[in-house]
Amino acid sequence: MPDVEQPQPDRRAPTTLARFWRGRDIGIVYGAIVIVASLWIGLHSDAAVRKLVENVSTNLVNMRSTPLAVLAASAFVVSPLTQLLLVPVVVFVFGLVQRWLGRMALVAVWVFGHVGATLFVMAMEINALYRHIAHFSIVVKPDVGVSYGMAAAIALLCARVPQKWRLPYASACLGVTVGMFAIWPGFTSLGHLTAIVIGLGMAAAVHGGEVAALGTGTSVVSTKERRAPTLS
Predict the structure, then answer these.
(1) pLDDT tens digits, 163-180
(2) CA 137, CA 145: separation in Å to the nearest integer?
(3) 12-226 has which CATH code?
């Protein structure tokens, strides 16, 4: 009796998922944690939500008592929940950076953007209080979210776009955040502008490293990473 050929399982779906996961795992895991943590907080009453968000916020009171804890926790919570719409953008942008420079570089950009912008905003708030140009309520004003790290990563990609587009790209990054600051003046908008400046500074450093590497015949990224699409 002739052998009956067994149908082969369709491996396209797992392959597609594996391809999507590869080079985006940091952003996907980060986004998943943000979604779960934020939704869990959102299930509580309004008063409880305000209290929970305040407890993980990088406001001046928390930064004085538990600075390291709130610097970390504040990056994993968004409020209000409409800011969860930023999570797909975070996954996309973080994926571009990770496939270009690797996991460690992405984490460094994320930390420098989030922590650097937060500390600068904190310094400006203290200065505003000292000069009596801000209300004392800012010491407990909530400041959480994914936007500082995301803004720094977006600005870093200035070093990834083609040379002729780098100045327009950097100008657009600065223009959007300056416009946001003009429309919604406040310390959060100042933090976004700071994160963009931090990201552009890191982009300049990466570009300088690439120029130096070309002179020695080496590269700042691996051969595998150089094959990754530029902005896809």
Answers:
(1) 899 999 999 999 999 999
(2) 20
(3) 1.20.1540.10
